[in-house]
Amino acid sequence: MALVKNDLINAVKERCYVTEPLARNLVESFFEVIKSSLEEGDSVKLMGFGNFIIRKKEARIARNPKTGEEALVEARQVVAFKPGKNLKTKPVKEEDPKKESNS
Asked: pLDDT below 70 — which residues of the chain?
């Protein structure tokens, strides 16, 4: 099961004892600051969590696997996430395979 934005808003609301509109504003503002920093070409470093970085991809020739036709993929920039040391060392709780098959 994935954590979605509404889950984050509810968690902020409960942990910070604030109203839902304030929690929503905090979460939205947090994401907006990260987004605008990345759009300006800056990295976002969250100590103990990880880094959002801009990676430059060079232009390249790709091939359509169905037709074999070549196509030019233009140079572009992509956002990458590199987890911090604390996030890497935490064990991930494994899901019970029996639960997933019943869904």
From this structure: 91-92, 95-103
Predicted local confidence at residue 1, as pLDDT: 82
Residue type, 24: R
Q: Is 40 in contact with 47 (CB distance < 8 Å)? A: no
Residue type, 103: S
> CB neighbours of 8 closer than 8 A, spacing ≥ 6?
27
Within 10 angstroms of residue 50's Cβ, the number of other Cβ atoms is 17
55, β-bridge pairs? 78
CATH topology of domain 43-90: HU Protein; Chain A (4.10.520)
User: What pLDDT sits at residue 100?
Assistant: 55
pTM value > 0.70: yes
Which residues of the chain form CATH 4.10.520.10?
43-90
Dist. CA 77–CA 53, nearest whole Å? 10
CA distances from 85 to 33, 80, 88, 89 (A): 23, 16, 5, 6
